[in-house]
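An example makes the point: we print one protein in full, the chain in one-letter code, the fold tokenised, without further comment:
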Amino acid sequence: MTAHGSGRGPQRRQILMMGGAAVAAGSLAAAGSTTAFAQTARRGSTWDKTFPRSRMVDHKKVSFRNRLGIELVADLYSPKRLRGRARALIVGHPFGGVKEQTSGLYAQTMAERGFVTLAFDASYNGESGGQPQNIASLETFVEDFSAAVDYLGTRRFVARDRIGVIGVCASGGFSLSAAQIDPRLKAVATVSMYDMGRAYRDGQGYAPVPAERNSVAERKRALAEAAEQRWVEFEGGKVRYGGGSAVPLKPSQQAAADEFAEYYATPRGQHPRSHPLSLTSLGAIANFMPLAQIELTAPRPLLFIAGENAHSRYYSEDAYAQAPEPRELHIVPGAGHVDLYDKVDLIPWEKVTGFFDQHL
């Protein structure tokens, strides 16, 4: 299916150029009110997540600042009757996503399994600060993981030398990049990892099949469109979001877009604070190289988890091939890319828990 081969294609493309996403413009936005997922939580508060609240853990909203002074807002989950200093996990959300979606589900579930966990909104996204909102600054997204270590490592109930990270989709790349420069991250697990720089260079934000990778000429057209948009916005014009229209989506890219839309543009994963990122972010994203110093992660362990049928599977396989020991690649039978966002019967919880039990 191409972007113009289905009535859904152009509308879905507005959702987001790659794995994070949000409510599409127009009718899709109207279709997903917060009532699709809100429920009454304990103590009379509103539970604004896309997953049910667990009675096995405590939850509270917290905030802290990164090195750039941007305030990050996060959900802190902890086991009930926590004693002593606990192991902790930072959980990063997909590109353009928010903590109320996938990362929150992982954080809450791992708290049920004994870890203190922190799911945060990346800078410029969700409830976190940074202006303008809904832009991509990948250096800052990497910094946010170190800021999360700063926060957790200064909590009296956290063992600061036993902090790990789970990065889902684009946060797989961001967390790997953070671990290369921050040795306080003691173990890294990626789930449905996306290399965002490569995705924008090769496929307008989507992982394409090899035969449909963007040519150099197509990459130049996409970058030129984003550069022209900078003048428009500098002069007060309307901000554009998503990956632009200079390079039409190829079939494998459109198929990936449709897969993301099944999560982000439906009540399954829709959230009002999950939003496409600006077109003018394209240049900064395309320059991102998350595996540039992956050898620096050794001797800390790395776990790459990908679905057997995931269109993005080769990102995890390529990262695994470049990674130093100790490393492990775990392929989930029958799973696609987005399946590992929220399908709890497919997510390999025992594998993830065992990895951190062994290494933290």
Remarks:
- The beta strands are 39-40, 46-47, 57-65, 71-79, 86-92, 116-120, 158-168, 188-191, 302-307, 327-332.
- The radius of gyration is 19 Å.
- Confidence is low (pLDDT under 50) at residues 1-44.
